[in-house]
Amino acid sequence: MIEDRELDIWREQWSRIAGPSPRFQREIQQKIRRQNLRFLVGNVVTAIGFVGMLIFAVVLRRQASWLGAWWATGISALALVSAGYRFWILRGTWHPETQSTRAFLELWHRRVQARLRLLEISVYVSLGWIVFCAVLTAVNWRTIGRDVKAHPRDWLEVLVACLLMQPVLWFGAAWIRRRKLAELNEVKKALDELDQGLGTSVP
Amino acid sequence: MSESRRALEERFERILVAHAAAISRLAHSYEAVASIREELEQEIAMAIWKALPHFRGECSERTWVFRIAHNRGLTHVWSRRPPHQPLEDLEEADEPVDPRPHPEEQAAQTHQRARLMSAIQSLPVIHRQMIVLMLEGLSHAEMGEVLGISENNVAVRLTRAKKVLKDAMGVKP
Lengths: 203, 173
Hints:
- The complex is a heterodimer of chains A (203) and B (173).
- Helix content of chain A is 85%, strand content 0%.
- Chain A has helices at 2-15, 24-63, 66-89, 101-139, 141-150, 152-196.
- In chain A, helix 2 (24-63) packs antiparallel against helix 3 (66-89) and helix 3 (66-89) runs antiparallel to helix 4 (101-139).
- With 173 residues, chain B is mainly alpha-helical.
- In chain B, 72% of the residues lie in helices and 0% in strands.
- In chain B, helix 1 (3-30) packs antiparallel against helix 2 (34-51).
- The radius of gyration of chain B is 18 Å and the shape is globular.
- Chain B starts with a helix and ends with a helix.
- Residues 82-94 of chain B have low confidence and may be disordered.
- Chains A and B meet through helix 1, helix 2, helix 4 and helix 6 of A and helix 1, helix 2, helix 3, helix 4 and helix 5 of B.
C-alpha cells in the first residue's frame, strides 16, 4: 500500500496550497462591471458603424456618379457577405468552455480550422476586390481618365497606397496562418494524448 | 437591478466562495508565476460568470466548475508556453515560511509542496488534469464527466498518470 500512502501525502500537500488572494472577489466584481461596459460600448459602436455605412451607401447612390454608386453597392455587398460567412463558418463554436475536455478540444479544433478557412477566403476576397476595382475603372475609364489627366499626382498616390496595402495584408494573413497552423497542431496533439492516454510533452 | 440578475450574482458569489480554493489550486498546476496565476484565476472566474446563465444542471456544479477551469487552463498553457522551472532551481519563491514553532519542519513541508507542484506542472497536460482531479477528490465518474471519457478509461489513464508523476517526483517503484 505504498502508493496509497504517497497519494495521501500528495493530497495533504495539495490541500495546503494557498487559496486566492483576499481581494479576489472584489477584483472579479470590478472585472464584470468593466466587461459589461465594454460589451455595451462595443454593441453601440458596431450599430453606429453599420447604420453609418448604410446611410453612406444610400447617399452615395443618390448623389454620386455611376462609379460611386457601384462602389457603394460593392462595399455593402462585401460587408454583408463577409459578416454572413463569418457567422456561418463559426456556428456552433461559441461557449465551448462548459464542455468536457474532449468536446472542448474538438470544438477548438473546429474553430481553428474555421478561422483558417476564413483567412483563405479573405485572401480570395481581397484579390476579388482588386479585380472588381480594376473592372470598374476600365468600364468608367472615359470619366476617370479625364480626372487622372487633371490630377495625376493624386491618382499616383492612390495607386501607390493600394499597391503597398496589398503586400502588407498578405504578409499579415501569412503570419496569422502560421500561428493558426501551430495552434491546430497543438490541439491535435492534445486530442491524440487524450485518445491514447500515453502523453506527449506539452509545456 | 432586475431580480434575475441579482439571483445570478448571488449564485455566482456562492459558487466562488465554494470553489475559490480549488480554482486557485488548479491555477497553480497551470501557472508557476504568482502574478500571472492570479490573472488566470480571474479569467477562470470570468469564464464561470459568462457561462453561468447557460448552466442548467446537466452535471454537478463541481464538475461544471472543473470543466471550465481546466479548459481555461488549457487555453492558458498554449497561449503562454512558459519555460518550465526545473525541480533543482525551485525555491519557495512566493510562499513565505511560517514563523510559528518548528520552522525547519514548516520549511521542509513548503519545499515538498513546491516539489509536488513543479512535478505536476511538468506533466503532459492531460495527465496533469487527471492528477489534479484525483487530488481534488473527484470520483472516476466525475473525472470522466470533466474529461469526456469513460470510467474505465479514467482508471487506466489515472494509473499511467500516477506513474508519470512518481517518475517526475523521483519516487522509486
